[in-house]
Design goal:
436 residues; alpha/beta; Aspartate Aminotransferase, domain 1; Aspartate Aminotransferase, domain 2; eight-stranded mixed sheet; four-stranded mixed sheet; 17 strands; 35% helix
Length: 436
Amino acid sequence: METKKTLSRKTSEELFTKSKTYFPGGVNSPVRAFKSVEGSPLFIKKGDGCRIWDEDDNEFIDFCCSWGPLILGHNHPSIYEKVVATMQNGASFGAPTRLENELAELILSRNPYIDKLRFTSSGTEAVMSALRLARGYTGKTKIIKFEGCYHGHSDALLVKAGSGLVTFGESSSAGVTENVAKDTLVLPLNDIEALKKCIVDYAGEIACAIIEPIPANNGLLLQDKSFLIALREICTENEILLFFDEVISGFRVAFSGAAEYYGITPDIVTYGKIIGGGLPVGAYGAKKEIMACVSPDGPVYQAGTLSGNPVAMAAGIAQLSECAKPEFYKILEATTAHFVHEINAYAEAKKYNFELVTIGSIFWLSFDGKKRIQQAEQINPDMTSFKIIHRELLNRGVYLGPSGYEVGFVSAAHKPEDLQYAIRAFCESLDCVFAH
């Protein structure tokens, strides 16, 4: 792959002009509109391994990986073969299939934190359903969430902090009513005193505390392990369910996610598209006594025609079988650590105010140097530097998600030569950022 100096977007621009007549903002998910970066969005035509190609035939090394779930890269042969074989028997039945059992056994036999699970069609649906389960199981109405954690677009979780340290949630989207938002209590991350005060103030009313144990949707806000341990202990003491939203971290930092990585047991956990090889799927799980509340065994209703879709199950079996192999996560983490180290060493030598923050195979671009960022409000909202590096990386054939608040991912498909090229591209792009 040759280093590019300019990027042709003619076909993508034409497609975007047409798409704006069909969809709000021309897209079916807001960040895709490229409003946080420069230029019009790239329309992707195909992907293979760690590479993607757009409709103008520009080639990129991809670190977005469909926002994380493509841990084996694009078009992995095992997933492709399993999906094609399954499709020959039909794409959807709305009825039980053997494949659901196979994927569930693959997950549960290696996950000591949950006894049963329920498949859904997305991470948002999994979180929404698990939240209902928490309230149904405990008989309590209020929930705690933490500012800077994203849990999908269900109404109860599209809230932000109000004016006080411990506040009722305020809607962060039009259409979310005050009555829905008021049952969500929003706290700062990594603040035990705020947590304790909230529990005292709303004693006996809180069903669960939901958190991304590795917050990775508003920067990479790595928490002190001591905070997560204290959160577990306080929830146990006060009969509050601890809810780990592992839609991003699940199967990314370890097979059983952040729960395994930190050695902390949640009461409820959710997973996303990674369990379906990137196809539309999610899941929530818990111990038997909690899952016994889910219909048809119990009174908490949740259903879905595409839940346990055979094509998604087949892709998930193929992908997670690879992830379950010995040393898979150790190798991927070491690969990522080398990639990150080389770029950070260059930035440090040049005295650039930049650092790649990392955990497992996840990384985030921080233009605050080595400042430890653990809360969303600590992120500098000026994204000028990210806009520049995003443009320069695209021009050099490296693709990142089009937002400075989003994280990047290394997959098993990123070979040493791919990463070496990307390291050079990053270093050249950093030179452009800090040239002025």
